[in-house]
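SAMPLE LOG
Freezer: B-3
Tube label: C17
Construct: single chain, 350 aa
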Amino acid sequence: MSFQTEIVKWYLINKRTLPWRDTTDAYVIWLSEIILQQTRVEQGLPYFNNFLQNYPTVTDFANATETQILKLWQGLGYYSRGRNMLFTARQIRDSHAGVFPVKYEDLIQLKGVGEYTAAAISSFSANESKAVLDGNVFRVLSRYFGIETAINSTEGKKQFNELAQALIEDQRPSLYNQAIMEFGALQCKPKSPDCGNCPVQSGCYAKANDRVNLLPLKIKKLKKRIRYFNYFVCFDGELLLVNKRTAGDVWQELYDFPLIETENSYLEDHEQFLAKLKMNFGEACIIAPLAQQKHLLTHQTIYVQFFALDNYIINFNMNAEIKWVSLAAFEELPQPKVITNFMISNSIKQ
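STRUCTURE (predicted):
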């Protein structure tokens, strides 16, 4: 049997039951695809269900506020995805009469929809013959066909795209695309793939040449940026001082606490830290360390230190939007995961 036939046969026996698999509704498929970008199925599934329950149609989604969307998105990371989804939903409501496009050429014009997502939606909703290329598919094709070109290089993307498109010809696009994606997710995994029970192992280049743990190849990423965030927990009676993050940095439009960023930890850059502290909170302010966190982002590692603050005055000269809110009101605002974790794991008292 052919590679494609074996992959589809495996899929029909081993596929997971997932709520977006039994629909051709482009909105539902779009919702699942965007949520699952950079997110494991197990983590993304509750978010998908929650969004679909709150916003059953793309028009319902479009009518939501950005704060409502970001609050539901809280904890998923890559918050630009949520903002882009709201922009796209409103575009579909206003320019497409609330009817979600299903053709690749229309989907690729939508904000936040790249080649992979457009191929997925068009093939799953309209059976358009567009091959998907996500991390799972790259891995399967690289190992089976022995492609040694880096998957994140211009040459590699072209090579894999041409191969993937050739393989989907004469196939049922929706079924084949889902099959090869699922095969990569469950069978041909990044680590410890189940080669012994693989239905295509006899034709697999990587298996025959002891390259399973070496493929696919990828150009190494640039070194991560290291940052140090020092947060200050300030109360005035029942009110908490919070900061709305602005555009141009991580977590934009989310709410955290007043912040001083230093080049190193506050202990290593103690003089710089104290100077900024007194400039923003007055000469007589008193601090007490509360908790530490290490937060990993794709291109950044952020070391977070929380402080309790007392005997202060507010004198921020930063480009910040700072205001007093109740704890109940703060719970309703979208927050970075580091803030949510801190609020849950620490007893915050005035």
